[in-house]
Design a protein that fits this description.
This protein has one domain: Mog1/PsbP, alpha/beta/alpha sandwich (Protein Transport Mog1p, Chain A, 3-Layer(aba) Sandwich). 16% of the residues lie in helices and 39% in strands. The chain has an eight-stranded antiparallel β-sheet, with helices on both faces. The chain is globular. The N and C termini lie far apart (38 Å). The relative contact order is 0.22.
């Protein structure tokens, strides 16, 4: 029943955070075995963890941590069959803003008539997320972005094509499984 409620609430959006200059080169990361269909990815620097399909490739990019709060600090790009299916952007959240507070402060472009914002609770921790749904247009696919607070970070997960069932499944599984581990 929760899955159906979650799917019903995923009518969400796009967001293109400001780009920053990378500190390090992009790296592709191997996934750790979890089961025959999926694997758990653990980011070696921040130790972000999430469950992804076993064939997925993850590119990580770190950006200058001294940039302003509204600049992305880390990006994970999940590719399947050599195409981008999910982008995860991570910012520092020193003000400990809620997802909606973050949008109102740092992503006000999501407050327009084409994008629907909806709050929902997901996962075993019943974590608050704000889903932004940008419908398909002649210039863009149906983009769904979820904002969630994890520790002292704000995270956005963007499903590149919310109308593609396989991409939607990767997005939903990553969103429910996303967690922070111990810092190295």
């Amino acid at each position: 029943m929760r899955r159906y409620l979650f799917l019903a609430s995923l009518v969400l959006s796009a967001c293109s955070p400001d780009a920053s200059e990378p500190v390090a080169k992009q790296k592709e990361q191997a996934l750790q075995p979890s089961n025959s269909v999926s694997r758990t990815f653990t980011d070696p620097h921040q130790r972000w963890r999430l469950v992804l399909p076993k064939q997925a490739v993850v590119r990580t990019t770190r950006f200058d941590p001294s940039t302003p709060v509204h600049k992305v600090k880390e990006r994970l790009e999940i590719l399947s069959d050599d195409r981008l299916v999910l982008r995860i952007d991570i910012w520092t959240n020193p003000e400990d803003l809620s997802p909606l507070g973050w949008i109102d402060t740092h992503a006000t472009y999501l407050r327009n008539q084409e994008i629907t914002l909806q709050q929902s609770y997901i996962g075993p921790e019943n974590r608050l997320v704000v889903l932004a749904d940008q419908p398909r247009s002649c210039q863009s696919s149906h983009i769904i972005t979820a904002f969630l607070s994890v520790g002292k970070s704000m995270v956005s997960m963007t499903c590149v094509d919310g109308d593609d069932p396989s991409q939607r499944t990767i997005f939903e599984n990553a969103l429910v499984s996303f967690a922070a581990g111990e810092q190295p």
